[in-house]
Amino acid sequence: MSLREALGRRLDPRRGPDQAFTSVEPGGPAVRAGWGEEPPPRKGFFTDTSICIGCKACEVACKEWNGVPQDGIFELLGSSYDNTGALGASTWRHVEFIEQRKPLGGQTTGVTIGVPETAVSAGVQLPDTGAGSFGVTASSFGTAGAFDTIPGPVTGPDHSGIDLFGSLKPEPVAKQQDKALVDLGMPAFDLPSASPDAGERTEFRWLMASNVCKHCTNAGCLDVCPTGALFRTEFGTVVVQDDVCNGCGYCVAGCPFGVIDRRIGDKNQPKDAIANKNHGIAQKCTLCYDRLGEGLTPACAQACPTQSIQFGDVDELRERANLRLADLQAAGVAGAQLYAEDPDGGVGGAGAFFLLLDEPEVYGFPPDPIVTTADLPRMWKNAGFAALGFAAAVTAAFVGGRR
């Protein structure tokens, strides 16, 4: 293969010839990595957050199978029931608890409180359509689209401008400039979601999602690794080789999702303790590479009781995700959307993608992730031209000085 052909394999025609690090091979990332023209089907995860119950069975199964040290079990955050906090070197699966000051549809809780709390909508007005509020219950949420509607208006705040899962319904284009702010569900230490008149506690919902490495098609961590410790498997996943990693941390800065990290360890425990396993080495989800080789389902997906985490061929999972999204939107869940599944996206489509019930920022995801090495070829080209120009100027100065 000629050099031109070799470089051509790394070029993405949608992004231009300068961005050699962002390529999409027709046969998938495993073909580009040299696994032949017909590698096994690309494997990945589809996480349907609408049916996640926050049980953390996936976290436990991941730690048990991979021998990942405990992280945050005894260190309660104080601001959330989520005690692990975020993905890291010792948390390869992380179940997020997003506590939002939003109602679940238009239903009222019937729970009153006797102490004043922070107003829900301080400075933020929910859309007022002039219609009454109708109660909705998810008692029959066994099948997508099956919701029981309580006829007639009920007392309480007007939530008619909000969908069944608490997301704002789309507004006319003319009103976009007045769009309400997105509640990111940031942790707080006060009692959540009281109505402004300290009467009924209605403005509150939990969103739960099991976060994990995205196993990107265009993986920034893989691009910047200087030792080859990170490699692309025949299943299209990205895995760290513990015995090759030198702990430089370049991959940590190269991940647009903040997934990978170096394990700190515990100096108060013996060196051979599990807490100090792979101390100083970059660690992240491997999509249970050892299990894939034996034809087994990854531990987290195997343990999920609601099938919120679905494992399979990425192409089939994308079809399944689009069907599920259509069902939710048909049921009135206007905020439902897919995240990181688009092959035309900034990371070339992720091997682990999500169905969200609100904006990506609410879940702590970047809204428009782009592989961090996308502009490296152009940057090196510009640096080369600058160096040539500088060398030419220095040469001209010396030649002119001798005359």
Automatic annotation (TrEMBL):
Sorted UniProt keywords: 4Fe-4S, Iron, Iron-sulfur, Membrane, Metal-binding, Repeat, Transmembrane, Transmembrane helix
Highest taxon listed in the record's lineage: Bacteria
Region of interest: Disordered: 1-42
Keyword Disulfide bond: no
Pfam family, one: Fer4_11
Keyword check for Hydrolase: no
Record-linked InterPro entries: 4Fe4S_Fe-S-bd, 4Fe4S_Fe_S_CS, FDH_Electron_Transfer_Unit
Segments passing through the bilayer: 383-401
The 4Fe-4S ferredoxin-type domain, residue ranges: 43-73, 204-235, 236-265
Subcellular location: Cell envelope
Major subcellular site: other
PROSITE patterns: 4FE4S_FER_1, 4FE4S_FER_2
Residue ranges with Basic and acidic residues bias: 1-17
Coiled-coil regions, chain positions: none
Protein name (record): 4Fe-4S dicluster domain-containing protein
Organism: Microlunatus spumicola
